[in-house]
Amino acid sequence: MAKDVESQNSHIFNESTLTSRRTFLATSAASGSFFLTINIPFGCASTGNRETAPSQTVKTLYLEVTADNQFKLTFDKVEMGQGVITGQATLFGEEADIEPSMFEMLPAPADTRYGTMGGAQITGGSTSTVQRYDVLREAGAKYRMAVLSAASKKLGLPKESLKTNDGHIIVKATRNKYPYAEFNDLITQNMLDQKVTLKTSSEFQYIGKYNKSIDAKEKSTGKAPYGIDFDIENKLVAIVIRPPVYGGTLKSFNQEKIKAIPHVVDCFAISGGVAIVCQKYHQTLKVRQAISDEMFTWEIKDEQKIDSDKLFARYKENLDANPLKAGEGKKLVQGLYELPFLSHAPLEPQNCTAYYNGSSLKIWAPSQMPTLPKNIGAHICGLDRDQVTVHTSKYLGGGFGRNTGPSTVDAIEITYRLKRPVQVVWSREDDMKFSAMRPMAISQLDAVIEGKEVLDWNYQTVSQSILQNFIGDYFGRTMPEWLPSGLAEGLAGTLEGTMNLFGLLPLATEGAKQPYELPYSVSTKEVELDVPTFFWRAVGNSINGFVTESFVDEVALAMEEDPYVFRSRLLKKDTRALGVVEAVAKSSGFEGRKTSKTRGLGMSYHYSFNTHVAQVADVEVINDETIKVHKMWCAVDCGRVINPHIVEAQVKSGIVYGLSAAMRGEITFKDGIVQQENFDTYRPLYLNEAPDVEVMIIESQEKPTGIGEPGLPPAASAVANAVAAITGKRLRRLPFNLKQEKRTEAH
Amino acid sequence: MIELTVNGKKVQVDVPEDTPLLWVIREELKLTGTKFGCGKGLCGACTVHLNGNATRTCILPVSAAEGQSVNTIESLEKDGKLHEVQQAWIKHNVPQCGYCQSGQIMQAISVIENNNKQTKDELTKQMSDNLCRCGTYHKIKEAIFEAAENMGKLKART
Question: What is the pLDDT of residue A472?
Fold first, then answer.
């Protein structure tokens, strides 16, 4: 049973720690514990290109060292499989000389003090290590220095005669060991304020080396707590019947008949649809069997009854069909790419538990953005934000950027009415049909070439805004009139922070401009639909990794140049980009490759989240229709690596997730209804379908850059490029279908 | 009242007999290590051992387990010692988000223990119906090969 972590964290938010401008604060408690409060300047990033403005709010992390030498470290970045729990322990533990698995890691409750984007606490954009690299190392070093000073004082020995290891002070001469906790009550603020020097990389014990996931045991014994596991006394469980079509609204429903179904405790309308409340989730399964369509009347407009094929045609109308013209002696290359809607489909379906007791609201949610429900909860229940507590589950059963906002709103609205704890659980069908999606997109690339020169490179894309729901759900739709100054500031800051994070607006074109020396022209048209959209792993790069890298091969082919030679030539000014391309070419034997009528290699490169990735795919085409990816080679430069096994795992994860989408992923609409409901109709790759993957991590002393997402964008194009080399067929539509008919007119 | 043995203990549950065993385990017995992923037997997150065999509980009515023996992920640790498969899972850092891993482990144990020596290909094939959205497949293979070998159940390819 997942614990209520509130009581564990309540002490850290007393006023004295909040108002202190000190970066690191020492506090002792009657319990004998020592607390290190770590204030994080807003916008802290190890890339060093952000200033800490004096007006920015300070944020807080903490370490508790108990009297019996247990180390409890809060982690504010949500652990959803990308390994930040191990990464954060490694960073702090390196400088503090505490072995990473010695930490008991405690998830931080949602608080704007952990905000990295204008007060919004968000785990995403492959930024956790980037944002915490400097501050956690410095905190660890400060703590170690303070313990050394306290030990030196207590033992009456000079600091030079002492060393630290595994959370213990060791007297060099005698080898006597003392747990750090022994000096808890002697650590003073002065000791903590001493100047520290961080370790050099030759001194690292853990950074770049620590290859154990500190959460592996919990996750291998069924003990890891997820949002859906949360339990609380007096809990009710609710499902929500939603309009079958996006944009549709509830006109009426047969409340009497539904309430008469066995085990239904209550039934009423909420903003998301009709809430049906039971005591247990298994009772809701029978309720679903008992309800029928006639019990609900939805108001659905004709234009909301969208159809995927018609949508693609409509999107195409927004493109300039021929933006470039090739003159005498020049050649025009064109490619029109089509990508579908995609669901995130993490294995844990959306869920949220909330409890409004009349004067305060508590929310427990497996969310990547836990501060935003605080605002929503405050608005819905008419409370001050301080009366709303949001706990992130210690673990999320996958995230991939998905929006858990709707289930949070469901839970808050239901508990507000019933004043009892309510857990809303979405079925897999709910999750697949009604979760915000990676928008569909049409991208067209045009290039004019002359000999081996690219004279013009024009990129157009048509899709929905990715941010519309991020802004709308959290700030617009749910809070139309309420905008106190604090929130307005937060909104502006969040928008700005998000733009800074992604570096480009709109997100649809993210990744369209790569480090190649090309005369880029990039434009985008936004389409408005009622389909909710959100960040899907790698965001705009999930589209542009496929589009741009496929077209790179098309252009190389048009000028009769080997795709590796072409890439090397155009990346020659970017040594890091060139580095990964050369590394992957070397390990895969790309230069000496043989291509047959059924087997061959394809190459791709993509730069995203400040990380360079190059991939080669070994593909077989069977019977002219089945694509089998035997192996992928991947070279990655993500700067300094903290945990090598996690970098490797994230690359493989990105490849499997990206290929699942490329080979089979699509959410389609017919009469406005999503056609995919479960893993039979939206079928990701299973174990026997995943290619072998060989990862080459480029050694680097540069600051760490992201790894959660960058492995994904180049995967689809590496495969498409191999297929083109083998069959001569250029696949411009995802998911791959060698027998595809063109959706729109052929170019 | 439906009686069954769960993790070695006799339990009685007062639920309709068509209640999926998954929800009896999670909601009535409060054993949350077994997970809900799809509700249609497609992902394997709900896998337990029914009379020692891997079984998907989201689609199994509790009546089918009446009088039978059910073991969940929580039953594997004995006197502080983890199962060989769990040890291999930890050694190889298999889990990423971890949500599918209880099911993966229960499947792996059943595959190894209920068969004679098998090759790596045979083991791979039998793990190919359990979904992992994080893509830990490469690690699952490493871990199950090692566990099978340690348990004397790995056959070299001839």
Answer: 60
Nearest to A143 by CA among A178, A85, A97, A206: A97
Chain B residues whose CB is inside 8 A of the A213 CB are 93, 95
DSSP codes, B33-88? SS--S-SSSSS-TTEEEETTEEEEGGGSBGGGGTTSEEE-GGGS-BTTB--HHHHH
Q: What is the pLDDT of residues A450-499, one digit of tens each?
A: 999 999 999 999 999 887 777 665 554 333 334 444 454 455 555 555 55
Label residue A175 left, alpha or beta by phi (over 0 means left) and psi (-120 to 50 means alpha).
left
Structure tokens given for A558: 């048009």
**Across all residues in chain A, what is the average pLDDT?**
88
The rounded distance, in Å, linking the Cα atoms of A706 and A382 is 39
In angstroms, the CA A343 to CA A666 distance is 8
Say whether residue A664 is in contact with chain B using an 8 A CB cutoff: no
Q: Which residue of A279, A282, A682 to mutate against B (max B Cβ within 10 Å)? A: A282
User: How many other CB atoms are there within 10 angstroms of residue B44's CB atom?
Assistant: 25
Q: Is the ipTM of this complex over 0.85?
A: yes
Quick check: B39 and A428 CB within 8 A? yes
Determine contact: B94 vs chain A, CB below 8 A.
yes
Cβ separation A83–B125 shorter than 8 A = no
Side chain identity, residue A254: N
- The closest of A587, A592, A612, A620 to A693, measured between CA atoms, is A587
CA pair distance A315, A462, nearest whole angstrom: 6
What is the torsion angle, in degrees rounded to the nearest 10, for the CA atoms of residue B126, residue B130, residue B131 and residue B137? -50
Q: How far apart are CA A420 and CA A415, in angstroms?
A: 6
Contact between B21 and B57 under an 8 Å Cβ cutoff? The reply is: yes
Q: CB neighbours of A166 closer than 8 A, spacing ≥ 6?
A: A97, A98, A99, A102
Contacts of B17 in chain A (CB under 8 A): none
pLDDT (mean) for A712-728? 97
Predicted confidence at residue A739, as pLDDT, reads 78
**What's the sign of the alpha-carbon dihedral A340, A341, A346, A347?**
negative
Residue A467: per-residue pLDDT: 77
Q: How far is A141 from chain B (nearest CA, A)?
A: 28
Q: Which of A502, A536, A565, A578 is nearest to A667 (CA)?
A: A536
CA distance B129 to B127: 6
Enumerate the H helices of A503-631 as residue ranges: 540-558, 563-570, 575-588
Integer CA distances (angstroms), A696 to A586, A651, B138, in order? 11, 10, 16
Shortest CA gap B34–chain A (Å): 7
pLDDT at A747 over 50: no
* C-beta separation of A514 from A451 below 8 A: no
pLDDT digits (tens, 9 = 90+) for A346-356: 999 999 999 99
What proportion of chain A, given as a percentage, has pLDDT over 90?
75
Interface of B with A in 1-30 (CB under 8 A): 15-16, 19-20, 23-24, 26-27, 30
Q: Which residue(s) pair with B32 in the sheet?
A: none
- Residue whose structure tokens are 């013009």: A456
Which residues, 6+ apart, have CB-to-CB distance to A367 below 8 Å?
A78, A227, A352, A373, A390, A392, A396, A404, A408
